[in-house]
Amino acid sequence: MKKKQIYVTEPSLPEVEEFIPYLKDIWETKWLTNNGKYHKQLEVDMADYLGVDYISLFTNGTLALITALQALNIKGEVITTPYTFVATANSLIWNNLKPVFVDVDPIYGNLDPDLIEAAITPRTTAILPVHVYGFPANVSRIQEIAQKHKLRVIYDAAHAFGVCLDGESILNHGDLSILSFHATKVYNTMEGGAIISHDAATKQHIDQLKNFGFMNEISVVAHGINSKMNEMQAALGLLQLKYHKSNIDRRAEIAELYHTGLSKIAGIRLASSPAGLSNYNYGYYPIFISESIYGQSRDSLYHYLKTQDIIARRYFYPLISQYSAYQEIGAASQLSVPTAEKISKEVICLPIYPELDPEDVLRIIDLIKEYRSH
What we know:
Layout: E1 6-7, H1 16-29, H2 37-50, E2 54-58, H3 61-71, E3 77-80, H4 87-94, E4 98-101, H5 116-119, E5 124-128, H6 139-149, E6 152-156, E7 164-165, E8 168-169, E9 176-180, E10 193-197, H7 200-209, E11 214-216, E12 219-220, H8 231-262, E13 268-270, E14 277-278, E15 286-289, H9 291-294, H10 298-307, E16 310-311, H11 324-327, H12 338-344, E17 347-349, H13 358-372
Parallel strand pairs: 1-16, 3-4, 3-5, 5-6, 6-9
Antiparallel strand pairs: 2-10, 7-8, 7-14, 9-10, 11-12, 13-15, 15-17
């Protein structure tokens, strides 16, 4: 009998019976979207849960990214990382901006602040870093550089729901931060996203942009789009907040199993937590394979695990700058990114989600150990 395939992640959902009363209420009121009561309540509850001042909910994280760039009127060139999901750079292209890819640090894969200034030109207006795997980018150094050169900072925090640095939400850094509530994330509303801002006027502007630019029934004050979160997404989001902490606790237990089993295997590097990190969400469990020491390539291990019904993922491979769509616009001929290229060829993210059976985790560890000796 064929084993059940184990995927890199699986969405956490409440019991359907708990969701049904919300659906019945939505059916009765027929208020499906446009700032309904669940939408309003989720903004309040989530801001309190995350320790931030203002949240604007979106139908997905990509539209939140696109809108954040519009909200700050970003023009010209934006410094960002090639080591992330393609939506980060796509949001720039959709705003007619030029992504300038800068190399990353070798430990976490975050944008390397020591290399940012060399990439700044007279056309540079912003920096778009990513908190890769939920590990915070070097926010203090990036802020120093931004202030020195009068640049805006928008953080792609899609991986960083709930994460804190030095006792404060990582989302409070930069001019804006963007979240994703996609089904693959540690907190999901099936699809969804948000922009975190720091003052009421900015939130009002963002909320206008996501609703066609309307200020009131008869006044359009901006060239907006439609990217509002609907009531069913928001209702699910309210339920998901109830279970988020227990889900993260379970992820932490799985991560500890991996750490115990893999930490002494030659040729495998694990990502250790940086100083000051708290409330880490264990959204990913990346390991980095040194072929010369482990004895097998990352790709070889990846395909071997597939034969054993373990569907790991190579996040992030290839680099955004290596995609044909970006080579066509000359992105590949920009700055050299050797560290990003190196870790992109080494990384493999192992399955991690609250319902993952510990026995399956131990089996994955054994498979990785055994394959080394092949």
